[in-house]
Amino acid sequence: MTLETRMTINGVSVCPTGEERHEYFTPAFASRTKKRFCQYDYRHTDGELFSCVAPTLEECRRKRDEWLQRKTDKETRR
Questions:
Q1: What does the domain layout of the chain look like in residue ranges?
Q2: What one-character-per-residue DSSP string does 7-28 give?
Q3: Which pTM value belongs to this model?
């Protein structure tokens, strides 16, 4: 089963290069508590996709920033 969202087509991210996309959802296991999560995609200018799920958009962006920092550090060591 493939979940169709505004962020994907046939399960593949449609996030353009250099942009971010996010949407909130409530997973089936949290339907009674109504706990929502944010699904987040960011496609770097080099085409690499960063994707995560966290309780808030701010948490997703913090994780993205950490990923970008590790990526930058790795590229400068070359």
A1: 8-76
A2: TEETTEE-PPTT-EEEEEE--G
A3: 0.80
